[in-house]
Specification:
Blueprint: H1 12-29, E1 33-36, H2 62-72, H3 76-111, H4 119-128, H5 161-181, E2 197-198, H6 205-215, H7 222-238, H8 253-266, H9 286-299, H10 320-349, H11 355-366, H12 369-379, H13 382-396, H14 411-442, H15 450-467, H16 469-491, H17 498-508, H18 523-528, H19 538-541, H20 544-577, H21 582-596, H22 656-675, H23 685-693, H24 706-724, H25 726-731, H26 735-749, H27 766-784, H28 790-799, H29 803-834, H30 836-843
Antiparallel strand pairs: 1-2
Helix pairs in contact: 1-3, 1-5, 3-5, 6-11, 7-10, 7-11, 7-12, 8-9, 10-11, 10-13, 13-14, 14-16, 15-16, 15-20, 15-22, 20-22, 20-30, 22-23, 22-29, 23-24, 24-27, 24-29, 27-29
Biased composition (Basic and acidic residues): 77-89, 616-625
Biased composition (Low complexity): 10-19, 627-640
Main location: endoplasmic reticulum
Length: 844
């Protein structure tokens, strides 16, 4: 039996060498992605031969195709030896020519006579495939076939352009041959031989899911599918138990919310904060009371719910109809307030990124487990407070105005455009003040964000006043009037008498309750659970008033550095808004880099028109959208003369204030949680909100890897925060939902903390984060042994009934403290990169 398929077919040796080239090509097709697991890349068969040329030949018979393929699948080591020997014997030039000849013969076998071309024609076609602008020695992934998606690494000993394209031609030839032979493709490289991958986010299940949706042309449905998935998770958690279920006499938070609906419905407004204070007296600001009143009014429309809201006789009511109504009220408010607010923030912050990155970030934020477990499991309405705060953050996340007018445009027109855009930004600040005031009036815990909001708003007022005193005073007056109007409208029934107002403030800030409530993972609780004598416990060592003052002083010291930097960044942002022309912008960039040194981050994007502009520099993005600028970033009115129209796209530059804002919000809220007075374990949701809004995708290389570090720390903080809620949710019967949702969220986003340690250069803090999470898992495993060996644990738990909650506090507090230190380091990095510290020194 002959092994040749025909007179024109290459011999076994030639086919073996060609197949060895295919092995090299398939190895190069494995994108290096670092410490993540490697997937075998199964190449898809080519649906058509349009990329192989116009000439075709009839498919060979099945037996002939099998004879051809049997000789091609030689052992891998033998194919590599054949290729190495041929390269050694002929040298680099000879190897290149040999590969070119083999590829020509292989193409002629499939495509027919039209595939054979002269060497100079073939070289010309290969040279035309190179990029005319970048002139890279290797082709990009987009220039190649969509089925290969090969990214080439730039090693010093990489083959030439001709050699690379020859290998691509061989790969396409083999794909076409398998299509003709109707045989399934065999894997060219085994799992063990595949190169390690470095882009850890490329293989997360969430990325694979979105890639599949994009392949099926369902991009328009990604937002809807993400929304449905988030709602489904909330409904699944809501099917479980809740706080205080069937535990009289006080029940729990579910009964507290129902009781507030009851009293708001039946009592006059001035008695809301004085009615039955020993049984879940109202202790949240007035907007919570108004929302409870609205929910109670809606419930009266259903006769079956009226007995569950009767005054005094309905205490402890847990009828299925009332439970369903209250669960739906939380879900509807979450869908109407929180989910759109965080979606707007994510899409506005990542508007210059690719569509897939925005989708992944949005799905990650929507499915955050902490808020779902507390609101839809434990039962509260924190989504309203966090959603209103997120709306405020979004309005403060402005872009740098960018005005590029024609050369003959007058300077007065440029100044007019900049002033108009700057006034639009100031109007957004006023709207942000309104939403943040609403958040404060819903729950007083929004004060965790107040120092950062105050710093950025005051900085803008001062920055405007330095150039125009009238504009600075006008913005300050607008912010003050907006805040006062919101508070006056919601607090109006209690403003008539000082005693009534004092009663509301006394209920909102209960200093008499003590330093902290329950086992919360902050510094004061960790110090209180240390094994020391009762004499040295903080409540006994210092009085309540002294502890309150100590807590206030500690919080102020912790938030002062980051708030000062945000204030300086806001002042500097206003100064940069006044830059009208490119010459001035270039001078500013030069001065900043000279003062800040090589630490300045961000790559300046040059345009075809000339020198780089300050407004066009950014910290990097994987893809720049044509619509990257915000709505206020310099849109040109059609009524302007043609000479004044913009000649370049709008700016994608994030000003220093907007870049620092999320980190400052995380730092201040963590400081309040760690050192604040009267902190509850559910307060961990406040620092988790800005940390979650910073998440994009795993392995994100934007900003020289800064986004990847933010992702690692943000997911770590979420895991620690959810773990700190474990004792609370375990008492509520939410342990199963807690474990499943936490594992599912980490699996979907692709978080594998221990695999980072296998990387050649592990990220900063990776070992500490992995060790802390391993300790948390060990604590869970230890507690799981309690029902297995009750005789061993019974005497220990009788003496230390709060053993596991105390261990949880001692584990989570240092982890959150470490996250707070990371936020401070991010402030220093951004300040140095933006030139804020040098600007501050210059102003001094």
């Amino acid at each position: 039996m002959t092994r040749d398929g025909g007179a024109g077919a290459p011999g076994p040796a030639a086919r073996g060498v060609a197949d060895s080239e295919m092995v090299d090509l398939d190895r190069a097709a494995d994108i290096p992605l670092g410490y993540t697991r490697t997937r075998k890349r199964m190449a898809r068969p080519m649906p058509s031969h349009s990329s192989l040329g116009s000439g075709r030949e009839p498919p060979p018979v099945a037996g002939q195709a099998r004879r051809k393929m049997s000789s091609s699948w030689l052992p891998m080591q033998h194919r590599e030896d054949v290729l190495n020997n041929e390269r050694k014997s002929s040298g680099p030039l000879g190897a290149e020519r040999a590969v070119g000849a083999r590829s020509a013969r292989a193409l002629s076998e499939v495509q027919g006579p039209t595939a054979t071309r002269a060497p100079h024609e073939r070289e010309g076609s290969l040279s035309r495939m190179r990029s005319p602008v970048m002139d890279k020695p290797y082709p990009s992934g987009r220039a190649m076939s969509s089925s290969s998606r090969v990214l080439w690494s730039s090693h010093a000993d990489a083959p030439s352009d001709t050699y690379t394209h020859d290998r691509i031609a061989l790969w396409r030839e083999q794909s076409a041959r398998e299509v003709h032979s109707n045989e399934p493709r065999r894997p060219m490289v085994s799992y063990k031989d595949a190169a390690p991958r470095t882009d850890t986010g490329a293989e997360s299940p969430l990325r694979l899911m979105l890639r599949y949706l994009a392949h099926e042309e369902l991009n328009c449905s990604m937002y809807l599918l993400g929304w449905l998935m988030a709602v489904l998770l909330r409904c699944a958690v809501a099917l479980g138990s809740w706080s205080g279920r069937r535990t009289p006499p006080m029940y729990g938070d579910f009964e507290a919310q129902r009781h507030w609906m009851e009293l708001a419905l039946h009592l006059p407004v001035r008695r809301w904060y004085r009615y039955d204070l020993l049984y879940w007296g109202l202790d949240y600001p007035p907007l919570t009371a108004w929302v409870s009143y609205a929910c109670a009014r809606l419930a009266t429309l259903f006769p079956v719910l009226q007995p569950a809201l009767a005054l005094r006789s309905s205490r402890g009511s847990e009828t299925p109809e009332m439970v369903l109504f209250m669960r739906l009220s939380v879900l509807i408010l979450d869908v109407l307030v929180y989910m759109p607010a965080v979606a707007w923030f994510v899409l506005r912050r990542l508007e210059a990124r690719s569509t897939r990155v925005r989708h992944m970030a949005l799905w990650t934020v929507w499915c955050q487990p902490a808020l779902i477990l507390v609101d839809h499991g434990h039962f509260q309405y924190n989504a309203v407070m966090l959603g209103l705060a997120a709306l405020s953050f979004t309005l403060l996340l402005t872009k740098q105005p960018n005005v590029h007018t024609a050369a003959d445009a007058p300077a007065d027109l440029q100044r007019l455009l900049l002033d108009t855009l700057s006034r639009h930004v100031s109007l957004q600040y006023v709207a942000a003040a309104v939403f943040f005031s609403l958040s404060l009036c819903f729950k007083q815990m929004s004060l965790y964000y107040a120092p950062a909001i105050f710093a950025i708003m005051l900085g803008r007022c001062v920055g405007l006043a330095r150039t125009d005193m009238v504009r600075g005073a006008a913005l300050f007056a607008g912010l003050a009037c907006a805040t006062t109007a919101v508070f006056a409208l919601l607090w109006l029934p209690w403003l008539g008498q000082v005693s009534e107002l004092g009663q509301v403030l006394h209920r909102i800030f209960p200093l008499a309750r003590g330093l902290f409530e329950d086992k919360v993972a902050n510094v004061w609780c960790a110090l209180s659970v240390l094994p020391v004598g009762a004499r040295w416990k903080l409540p006994n060592l210092l009085g309540v008033a002294t502890l309150a003052k100590l807590s206030l002083a500690t919080v102020l010291l912790a938030i002062l550095p980051c708030c000062i930097l945000l204030f300086v960044a806001s002042v500097e942002t206003v100064r940069r808004e006044s830059i009208a022309d490119d010459a001035h912008a270039d001078q500013v960039v030069a001065n900043l880099r000279r003062r800040a040194g090589s630490v300045v981050s961000g790559t300046t994007r040059r345009t075809a028109g000339g020198a780089p502009s300050l407004h066009e520099s950014s910290r990097g993005s994987d893809r720049r959208s044509l619509r990257s600028g915000s709505a206020l970033a310099g849109s040109t009115s059609s009524r302007l003369p043609e000479s004044a129209r913009h000649t370049r796209r709008t700016s994608a530059t994030v000003p220093p204030a907007a870049e620092l804002l999320p980190y400052t919000l995380a730092s201040t809220s963590l400081a309040f949680y760690l050192w604040g007075f009267q902190t509850h374990e559910k307060s961990v949701l406040l620092p988790l909100l800005p940390l979650t809004l910073l998440l994009t995708v795993q392995g994100d290389r934007t900003g020289a890897g800064a986004a990847a570090a933010d992702w690692e720390w943000g997911v770590f903080a979420n895991n620690v925060g959810v773990f700190s809620l474990w004792p609370l949710l375990q008492r509520d019967g939410q342990f199963l939902a807690w474990g499943v949702l936490l594992v599912l969220w980490n699996y979907l986003i692709g978080y594998r903390p221990w695999e980072t340690l296998r990387a050649v250069r592990a990220p900063a803090g990776a070992s500490v984060r992995a060790a802390m999470q391993a300790a948390m898992l060990s604590l869970l495993a230890l507690q799981a042994t309690v029902p297995l060996v009750p005789a061993l644990w019974a005497p220990v738990l009788r003496r230390y009934p709060d053993l596991f909650p105390v261990l949880t506090v001692l584990l989570c507090m240092p982890a959150l403290f470490l996250v707070w230190l990371w936020t401070l380091s991010k402030h220093m990095q951004i300040a140095l990169a933006s030139g804020l510290l040098s600007v501050r020194q210059k102003h001094k």
